[in-house]
Description:
By secondary structure, the chain is α+β, with helices and mostly antiparallel strands.
Amino acid sequence: xxxxxxxxxxxxxxxxxxxxxxxxxxxxxxxxxxxxxxxxxxxxxxxxxxxxxxxxxxxxxxxxxxxxxxxxxxxxxxxxxxxxxxxxxxxxxxxxxxxxxxxxxxxxxxxxxxxxxxxxxxxxxxxxxxxxxxxxxxxxxxxxxxxxxxxxxxxxxxxxxxxxxxxxxxxxxxxxxxxxxxxxxxxxxxxxxxxxxxxxxxxxxxxxxxxxxxxxxxxxxxxxxxxxxxxxxxxxxxxxxxxxxxxxxxxxxxxxxxxxxxxxxxxxxxxxxxxxxxxxxxxxxxxxxxxxxxxxxxxxxxxxxxxxxxxxxxxxxxxxxxxxxxxxxxxxxxxxxxxxxxxxxxxxxxxxxxxxxxxxxxxxxxxxxxxxxxxxxxxxxxxxxxxxxxxxxxxxxxxxxxxxxxxxxxxxxxxxxxxxxxxxxxxxxxxxxxxxxxxxxxxxxxxxxxxxxxxxxxxxxxxxxxxxxxxxxxxxxxxxxxxxxxxxxxxxxxxxxxxxxxxxxxxxxxxxxxxxxxxxxxxxxxxxxxxxxxxxxxxxxxxxxxxxxxxxxxxxxxxxxxxxxxxxxxxxxxxxxxxxxxxxxxxxxxxxxxxxxxxxxxxxxxxxxxxxxxxxxxxxxxxxxxxxxxxxxxxxxxxxxxxxxxxxxxxxxxxxxxxxxxxxxxxxxxxxxxxxxxxxxxxxxxxxxxxxxxxxxxxxxxxxxxxxxxxxxxxxxxxxxxxxxxxxxxxxxxxxxxxxxxxxxxxxxxxxxxxxxxxx
Length: 760
C-alpha cells in the first residue's frame, strides 16, 4: 500500500491587498517553507518505501571486471543490488535522450555497460528496506577494474584542442572575424596581452539531488525529482523505459536551489526508476554531498585576451581566445568569447573557442554559463588597458560604448547600460577614486575600488498557461513552471493578481507538475519573460470573457462598452471613465449562472519582431575591497550593482536575485574551486568543509539599483530577467579592485591569499 500526498500550494498571506506589477511583495511560499510544510524531494514517503544508495567508481578510466556483492547482499534488509549486469530493460541507451533533453546532446547513461568513463561514475545501486541498511551494504561492495590511462589535466592537454562538433540549442559559435585584428594590434600604440585561468566550480545547492519514485498499485509512477523541469524529467523517464505519458507523472513543487545543476535529469533519477521497476515498489535515491561532485560542473577554462587602442582610448583591436574542457562523451559548449565582440565598439575583432576532451563527466551550465568566465577575462583586460593608457576604467568603457552589436549589425531592443554606469558610479562615489594603485589605506589594510560591465541574453521561449476564475472570486493559474528559489510562485501570482485586479491572497499559482500546461526549463533567466507572458496572456483572455458576460447582464452598464473601455480593479470590472460603474467579478459570474470560467493561452515569441534586435540585460558593478598584505586576505566591503533588465515584476524577489548573484560572484572571485589530483583523475575537495564558499562573514554592504527600462520586444510584460545578470562582472570588479589596492594583478580565480601576496 502507498500513502497518498496532496502537494501544498503556497498562497499569499491574508490582508496583502491589491498589488501592481513591480510591487515589493513578500514571497507567497515563505510561510510553508519556514514552517516546514513544504516537502522537498527526499521528504515524500510511502509505507512500502525502499531506499537506494549509489556505489561510485574509484578509477577515472577503465573497465569493470568483477563485482563482489556477497557481503553486501548478506546485510539484513538488502533487497537487491543493481548494476550494468542486471538492470531493468531499457530502450536503446545510445538514443534514449540524445537531442531531446534540455540541454540536448549525448548525456551519460548510467549502467550502460562495463566501461568506466570518469572517477565517481555510478557502478551499482544497493536497494534495501532502510536507508541505513542500504548505506552500510553499499560500503561492502567491492569492484575490480581493469584500469586504463586517463587525462584530466586541461593545462597539460591544450595541444589536443578541437573545434566543437556539436552545437546545443542557444549556443552561438564565435562570429567570423571583422577587419584585421592582428595587424591592428601590432600597429596600435597601446596594447595589452594576458592569459586568464578559471578553475572548476561545483554548484552545491543546499538540497542534494534526489528522486523519490512512488509506485501505485496499477504501476503508475509519481516521481518527485530535483529538476528544473518536471516535463523534461517526465519525458526522459518515458523514453528510457518505454512508459506511456499516462504512466509517469513528475513533480517538483519545491526545489532547494539548482543554478543549472537540474537542467538535465541527473543519474539518480534513472537509477531510482530502475529500482522501482525492479522491486515493483516505491524507491528513493538521495545523493550524498560527496556524490554531488560526481556529475557536472562549471568547466575549467583558459583564456587569452589581447586589446589594443589609440592613446585616447579608442579600441583598435579585440582578440579573445578560450580553451575549455569537455568530456569524452560529448562536446559541451558555452558562449565564452562572443561577448567581447558585443560589449565595446571596435572594427577589428577576432574570437576563437576550442575544447579539450578529458576523462571527466560532461560539464553543465552554472549560473551565467560562459559569461561568468568570458566577461571576467574581458573586463579584467579592459582594466589592464585603462592603466596602460593612464585612463579611468569607467571613462575607457564609455569611450568605446556600443549602441549596436557589430557582429550581427543589429541594434539592441533596449540598452540602458549608460544609465547603469551613471547611477552606479554616483551611488558608489566613483568620482572620488584616485587613479593610481596603492593610493588608499586604513590601518593595516589597503583599499581598492574596481568596476566591471556585465551582459546576459534576454531570452524568451514558448509556454502555455491555464486560468480558472471561481464564483467566489478565487483565481487559479497554472503552468508546469519551476521555482528553484527564484520566486516564481510569487512573481506569477503577482502578474495574475495585477492583471485581474484581485488581492494577491485570492490568487493561487500552481507549478511543478508535469501534467500542467507546458512550460520550458527554468534556466537562462527566461521564466518571467516566458511563463509570465503566458500568465498575463491567459488573464487577458479571462478579462475578455468577463467583458462579454458583463455586457450580457440585465441592465448592464457595459452593454455598449468596448473592451478597451473597461478595467479590472479591486475585484471588479468597471468603466475606465466611470469608476462608479464597478461590478464585482463574482456578480458577473453569478448573473451568468456559472460556477467558474476557464481559459488557456499559448505564448509564442514574436520571432519576426525579435530577429531584428539583439536582446540583452546589462549591468555595471562597482566594488570596494580591503586587502591585508601581510596575510593576503581580501574583504569585499562594498558593492553597488546597477541593473538594466527591463520592467521589474517583483522588486523584492528581483533584488534578492541580484544580491544572490553578487554573493556568488564574490565567492567565485575569492573562494570557489574544485581541485583535482590528476594522478587519480579525481576531485579531492568534494565536501563543503574543503570546497570553500562565501559565508556571512565574507559579505558586507550590497546595494542594488534597477534603472528604468521597458522592453516590449523581449516580452509583452516589458521584462527581461534577472537570474544570471547579478553574477556577471562581479568577479572582475573584485579583481580590478584588488589591483587598485595593491598594484598586483591576479589573473586566475579564485584569487586566494597566496596569489594576492605573490610578487609581481
